[in-house]
TrEMBL record:
This is DUF3761 domain-containing protein. It comes from the Bacteria. It holds the Pfam family DUF3761. Residues 31-61 are annotated as: Disordered. It comes from Phenylobacterium deserti. Residues 32-47 have a biased composition (Low complexity). InterPro entries: DUF3761.
Length: 88
């Protein structure tokens, strides 16, 4: 739990936690065994050919794609999730 709390503080300090629900994030973090590289919030630019990047797990409402492995806060700065492409 302490690792998850420390990771949350780091996200909050960097501004990456904006729009992310703390309780949902902590629940997901603890359920997955703690923070890890898969807690990434990476977002890819909109696809010009209609094919999402290979590692994408969801399409954001602004047309970008995310490869996050955590549902809480996915696409938070991109209008939210339009649709999930893979189970998370």
């Amino acid at each position: 739990m302490k690792q998850c709390a420390n990771e949350w503080q780091a996200l909050k300090s960097s501004g990456k936690a904006d729009g992310v629900n703390y309780q949902a994030w902590m629940q997901q973090c603890m359920a997955s065994g703690g923070p890890s590289p898969r807690v990434s919030k990476s977002v890819s630019p909109p696809s010009t050919d209609g094919v999402p990047p290979k590692s994408s797990t969801a399409k954001c409402r602004d047309g970008t794609y995310t490869s996050t492995r955590v549902r809480a806060g996915a696409c938070a700065r991109h209008g939210g999730v339009e649709r999930w492409l893979q189970p998370v």
